Amino acid sequence: MLQLEAKLLGSPTIKINGDSIDFPYKKVEALFYYIVVKKKVSRIKIASLLWGDMLDGKAKKNLRNALYQLKKVVGKGIINTPDRSTISICEDCQLDLDIDVFLNEEGEEAIEVYKGEFLNSFLIKNAPDFTDWIFEQRNYYLQLYIKTLRNYSKQLEVKEEFQQAIYYLKLLIEVDEFNEVAYRDLMGLYAKQGSIAKSVDIYKELEEQLHSELGITPDKKTVNLLQNIRERISHDINSNDDKKDEYIFRRDELDILINNLSRFLNDKSSASISVFGEAGIGKTTLVKQALSAIELKDSLILKANCFQAEERYIFKPWKIILQQLKKKVDFNDIDISLPWKKIISFLFPSLLIEEEEVLSEEMFSFESIQCQSATEALLFLLTEIAKNQKLILVFEDLQWCDDKSLFLLKNLIQESKNNNILIVMTSRNERKNRIENIFLDLKRHNYINEINLSRLSLSEVQKFANNSLSSYEFPEELVTKIYDETEGNTFFLVETLNLLKSKGKDQALSNLLTDKSKDILRNRVQSVSKEAQNILKLASICFDKVSYELLLDISGKNDFELIDLLEELQEYYLIEEMLSERNGSPAYKFTHSKIREFIYNHQSFSRVKLLHKRIAQFIEQNLQQGVRNRDQYAKLIYHYSKAGDKLKHLEYLIKESEIYFHHTHELFPITSDKSLEKDQIISFNQEGAHRYLTEISSLLEEVEQEVSENLVIREMKVKFLRMQAQFLISEGDYSTAIDTIQNMISEARNVDDWLSILRGYQQMAGLGVQKEEVTFIEDNAERMYSLAEEMEKDVEMAIALRFLGIAKLYQRNYQASERLFKNSLQIFKDAETLGKKYTLGIAVIYNYLGEVKRYERKFEEAINFYRRGISLCKSQNINWGLGIFHVNAGQVFFELEEYDKARTYFNNSLEIFKKLKTIWGYSAISNGFMSLLSIQRQDYEKAYDYLITAEETVKQYHKRYWLGILLRIKAEIAKEMKENGELAKVFKGYLNEDYSKYAKDALSILEEIGADYEIELVDNLS
Predict the structure, then answer these.
(1) d(Cα 228, Cα 237) in Å, to the nearest integer?
(2) Binning pLDDT at 50, 70 and 90, where does residue 452 land?
(3) Residues 433 and 286 in one domain
(4) What is the sign, positive or negative, of the torsion defined by CA atoms of 867, 868, 874, 880?
(5) Of 497, 523, 549, which residue constitutes the final position of a domain?
(6) Residue 805's closest CA among 751, 776, 754, 845?
(7) Of 406-420, 534-548, 674-688, minimum mean pLDDT range
(8) How far is CA 451 from CA 405, 427, 463, 837, in A?
């Protein structure tokens, strides 16, 4: 018989018949370790863990190759592949695995086996799921080792074997250096030995450790123990008079959480708490117990759950928190500034009742808000509320939280420092590293404390069972059976004991434990009627909660039948009722995610697909006509994708993407004021945009391969190409963008999508402005005008005339340019008589009329036009474009030598650009002129910073005019450096060319694209 010896605790070693084994590469080694630990594994599962980033076919191929290599190394007698779905260790092989010994033994025998972390120093690349499994196992065995050490030291203490107990406590502290409970136990043991001085030394060692590493002092319990030891008083500091003598589960962790909450409520130093552990380990229960154990005087508790299916939707958990807050707090009593009020209402439209109707007309991209601005606004709102009542915010399943919400959470903790606002978070172990990395600085500064919940050991399972069923005597064999079935997971343990309790004495308890944990849940579900089980199956298809209306529509039950079944399910504590946030009607959710997952995963594939499709159709039927709702689109995408309906999946993915891309690329978007008010701080997030385009492209390709090309697919392709062009424009890839737009126009012609063709011409003309190519602008603007006229699209005709006016401005045909701008202006004004207001469209024309006058050197007239545009935008609280108007006005005041006014306008523009992520490079002009203005005030260092910023901005874009202005400013500074030694000291390492060279380069650009006065000014410099 082959003897396989595997040591996985510490640096892993594998021996077969005494000979060490070397593996050909890491993933073969990883595969073997996983098989050894699990004994029998699914091919699909291990392929997903090791090659989850690959397509199924490639992953399976890699697995087959790895298995072949593994069998070559260990021989055929070790690995068994009985069928095409499983891999196992051969039954004929004698396996000596240290983990098995560690789990099955207790006390000294178990401790001796633990030689270090599970698979110490072993990691593999490009297998994040396998890495997560390693870290989960490491944490599990480490926590079990710590508990074993403490329990064994307690046993030795009872036997008065103090020296041995001290030895094992020191081992505990070696692996958990900040474990104050262990330090207290150690101090107590030395005190019992009469070594008071040694106890004090241990305290000082702890005090130094906490101060140097964490910057904190020992816990009050530890301080009290030291005082008691000094007075030689035997005192059990772990006793708590407020608790009964009964077994308190998770007592240490519960004490930490309760103590922290109490400190927070009593205005003492406290920390936000993150509770980590696998699903079903008791995170939510722990938090509930802690919150119920303290008196929540003058405080509000707000809770939000995060769901995997909603991870891509930013700020979703915060939306839930603020919806709860709205019900408990009158926001009208809070004096919040208009900008912050707008930011909050844009992010969370339902908070402002008076704007709900307007905001529901058209959703907008949450990517719009600068994270810092959102944090400041939200922090102010929460801080104001917390002045009257403390806030405890609970976030469940943070591993599914979107990045924006996590960073908002991080900033909130950092800014509030846990004063009047405390965060309690739970998270599964998977993706724990992501959460920890985001909160690393907060943990380092003690703004967050971490609680890790591990599985129960065999002895803890016995204690828990005895406490839960005190009337029954559990033989050792049965306890072991319970432990094996539940694997120490508290959820399954509770379910098992409930099952035993419900069956009563009519059946031997030991006979009830013949199935695995999944069958524990099966028994729970089968305890209700078949009709109720069908309702559970339907409800499990929804990942969060399910509405009463949906259940009524799809189940085919009448109201009375459905209510009876729902009440039955609530009686068995399988679901719980809640009110829908939307209309106040009932909604239902599972009492635990594991119940939902079990029911969902144990339905046939065909049933699941059908139910997903029926639910999607129900949501689709209830969409408001003409209203774009991202929340509903998200659910439709989820259900249609699970239903395998790729065409519908693609349809709603494109609809959602169109919301995301809405106006984000345009310099001056033309839309009604109502829409623009909501869109004004939208920005273009490249990562999110790229993700959408990649998903759509992949899905579109699949649909084209599986479905014969039809009108619907062609229309979707046109929409995709239009969004792709927007993305390419924002990336500055103008050449590819032009090719894409031309392709889009060609495809649009095939489906008679003339509106998309019109938008294509508009995009092309806009690209011409960006590239400063006059002929390109004119050709596309003329095509746009002709088509808009044919389609009777007045506003688009006005936009086309505006483009033609810009082309004439570049050609210095000022009279024609002014005429075209005025014609455009009149069309906008006429369009407003039909009910919609186009404030920005009109303001932009005033800006360009100002540009005509600036080019003509009629500066006073130019100022009047700029001011009219600025005034119009301010009257409607529109920021989009406002920064550019300020830039142009600042330039004119600079040429008029009214430098204070110029400085004001340039500063205003920079403030606006700072709020908006859509800078479009115009800040380069403001920063350049601010450099000259700073030199006037002899603030040369600041002038240097402004100029560097201007140059960095110009490098990101392709506008020759901005470069010409920058070179002109460099020429002026370089010329003054010849007369100003202090100025030269600051700029000498940067401006190392003669001023005439800068002037000459500026002139070559401005002669093509600049104003006459600018050419003259630079010509005089050279």
Answers:
(1) 9
(2) very high
(3) yes
(4) negative
(5) 523
(6) 845
(7) 674-688
(8) 21, 10, 22, 56
pLDDT of res. 509: 46
Question: Angle between the 923-936 and 940-956 helix axes, to the nearest 10 degrees?
Answer: 160
Cα angle: 942, vertex 943, 947; to 5 degrees: 115
Give yes or no: residues 535 and 501 share one domain.
Answer: no
Using alpha carbons, select from 815, 834, 962 the residue that is nearest to residue 888.
Answer: 962
Residue at which a domain ends, from 610, 628, 644: 644
**Contact assessment for residue 1001 and residue 1018, using Cβ atoms and an 8 Å cutoff:** no
Q: Fill in the amino acid letter for 183.
A: Y
* Domain annotation covers residue 958: no
pLDDT of residue 361: 31
Question: CA 706 → CA 605, 700, 709, 710, 712, distances in Å?
Answer: 20, 10, 9, 12, 14
pLDDT, position 173:
92
- The span from the first CA to the last CA of the chain, in angstroms, equals 94
Residue 84 has pLDDT above 90, yes or no: no
The domain tally of the chain equals: 4
The parent domain of residue 304 ranges over 251-452
Would residue 891 be called left, alpha or beta, if left means φ above 0 and alpha means ψ between -120 and 50 degrees? alpha
Are residues 16 and 131 both part of a single domain? yes
Report if residue 56 sits inside a domain: yes
Distance CA 692, CA 686 (A): 10
Q: Three-state DSSP class for 837?
A: coil
Q: Where are the beta strands (DSSP E) in 397-483?
A: 421-427, 448-452
pLDDT for 338: 67
> How far is C-alpha 141 from the geometric centre of its chain's CA atoms?
30
Identify whether the C-beta of residue 914 lies closer than 8 Å to the C-beta of residue 883.
no
Do 516 and 570 reside in the same domain of the chain?
Answer: no
Helix (H) / strand (E) containing 807: helix 794-810
Q: In terms of DSSP bridges, do strands 421-427 and 575-579 run parallel, antiparallel, or are they unpaired?
A: unpaired
The 10s digit of each residue's pLDDT in 195-241 is: 776 787 788 889 888 887 777 888 888 988 887 876 653 333 344 33
Q: How many Å apart are CA 771 and CA 764, to the nearest integer?
A: 10
Is the domain of 547 the same as that of 512?
no
The pLDDT value recorded for residue 1 is: 73
CB 605 within 8 A of CB 565: no
For residue 892, give the amino acid letter.
Answer: V
Same domain, 417 and 490: no
Mean pLDDT of the chain: 84
pLDDT in tens, 271-299: 999 999 888 888 988 898 788 767 666 78
Instruction: Tell me the mean pLDDT in the region 827-845.
Output: 81
Q: Cα separation of 700 and 710, whole Å?
A: 13
Pair 207, 218: CB distance under 8 Å: yes
Backbone angles phi, psi at 427, to 5 degrees: -155, 145
Burial pattern 621-652, b for ≥16 Cβ within 10 A else e, equals eeeeeeebbeebbbbbbbbbbbbebbbbbbbb
